[in-house]
What we know:
binds nicotinamide-adenine-dinucleotide
Amino acid sequence: MSKNYQQVALVTGAARGIGEATVERFVEEGINVVATDILPEIRHLKKANVIFLTHDVSKAESWASILGDVKNQFGRLDILVNNAGIGTLPDVEEEEERGWMEMLDTNAKSIWLGIKAVVPLMRSNKSGSIVNVSSIFGASGGFGKSAAYHASKGVVSAVTRNAAIRYAPENIRVNAVSPGFVKVAREEKTIEKAGDEMSQEILFRTPMKRWAEPSEIASTINFLAGKDATYITGVELFVDGGWMAT
Ligand SMILES: NC(=O)c1ccc[n+]([C@@H]2O[C@H](COP(=O)([O-])OP(=O)(O)OC[C@H]3O[C@@H](n4cnc5c(N)ncnc54)[C@H](O)[C@@H]3O)[C@@H](O)[C@H]2O)c1
């Protein structure tokens, strides 16, 4: 555990769900964590080794401010987890321009901004690992709903592969974790809105017949981010109970 103590990770969307579970896992691994979210505070993560900063991932100036703080505090960054994201239900015809733009800014533009912001600091250390949280919906048509969400996650997966090629010679790895259905409050609210039928359909179509725990996504993020994955770059790892195999 102590071998990782000096490492510094930045995790976005860390106030709850997968981000929160990732921070908890990194803390267990002895990694120093800068946990950020658009929400003004993180309730559960008041731990040594965790600094919380307010951050809007869709804004370049917000990334500049966060990176300034990371440099001042630690002078290095080993890991970025681009996790923050939103989800909505409208299909192609129901979606409106405003919703489409908000989704693409929050889920897709943010990934580009994040990589762009951290690479100079990683380059100065001659190493780095970036894990982008995409989704099975970036690679499949799902239920024919959530058109903007599907589009945004398609971008996340594509940028992951592109940036992996660009930064491989500089020892900066870029990978994606694509979860299936994860038991988090946001997902429950979305399913609630969509109705019980969708919830039954999810279980019916998921070969393992259950939802993922946030910690099961966090453990995969930790694997790709860390020392057991040093020859892996440009992959999208589905953590989906078998969904993509069907
Ligand atoms: N839960 C699932 O089933 C599931 C499945 C596939 C992919 N994902 C992806 O996992 C990631 C985490 O989602 P989650 O399920 O933990 O959801 P969540 O809503 O519990 O957590 C997302 C966090 O992101 C934050 N956030 C939203 N907009 C932000 C912004 N502009 N700047 C900074 N922070 C912002 C929210 O405040 C929230 O704390 C997302 O990218 C999501 O698309 C989730």
